[in-house]
Design a protein that fits this description.
Length: 183
């Protein structure tokens, strides 16, 4: 059985994975960069799979995901603004993947994590590492070209926006209570 706090955090993860999938799908459909179409589509699929895995875990633990309307992506977008270039999109995607990886790793490391939750997050962590790798490789290509300064600026801006969103996330009373109980 899930506590209200654990249900909230898992529902947040689920909603953020689902929002990420939808965003990546739109990018894959509309990108003018042919070489990005395949990796964006693959990552779209994997993010949707993560949302499904979290949904199944919540269900297995006797609950239904709660409605989450403010995902990590929606909050990051409010601060960063609309991405204007491929570099912006890659930087934002990179920061989202890094935050997800770090968050899931911290969650798995907590003492009182439900075994089913730990198993699900460990499986997701493996995919997140691969996502970061391909995005980082693509950013490095841009960094060595004429867009080098743009990459540096976009990484700094996306990381600053992400820190603000993370601070807000950890201010949520349900998240705080869960972390206090699980550590």
């Amino acid at each position: 059985m899930l506590s209200a706090e654990e249900l909230h955090i898992l529902s947040f993860y689920r909603a953020s994975e689902l929002a990420g999938s939808m965003l990546l799908g739109k990018l894959a459909l509309h990108t003018n960069h042919d070489h990005l179409r395949v990796p964006l589509t693959e990552q779209c699929l994997e993010e949707a799979k993560h949302a499904w895995m979290l949904t199944q875990t919540i269900d297995k633990l006797g609950a239904v995901p709660v409605k989450i309307t403010q995902t990590y992506q929606s909050e990051l977008g409010k601060i960063y603004g609309f991405p204007e270039s491929t570099v912006d999109i890659l930087c934002l995607t990179r920061v989202l993947e890094v935050v997800a990886l770090e968050t899931y790793q911290k969650h798995v490391a907590m003492r009182r994590v439900t075994p089913a939750v730990k198993e699900t997050l460990e499986a997701i962590i493996e995919d997140e590492i691969g996502h970061i790798d391909w995005i980082q490789a693509e950013l490095e290509k841009h960094a060595t070209g004429v867009e080098g300064q743009k990459v540096t600026q976009a990484i700094a801006a996306s990381e600053a926006a992400s820190r603000t969103v993370s601070e807000k996330f950890y201010e949520n009373p349900l998240i705080r209570r869960y972390l206090e109980q699980a550590t």
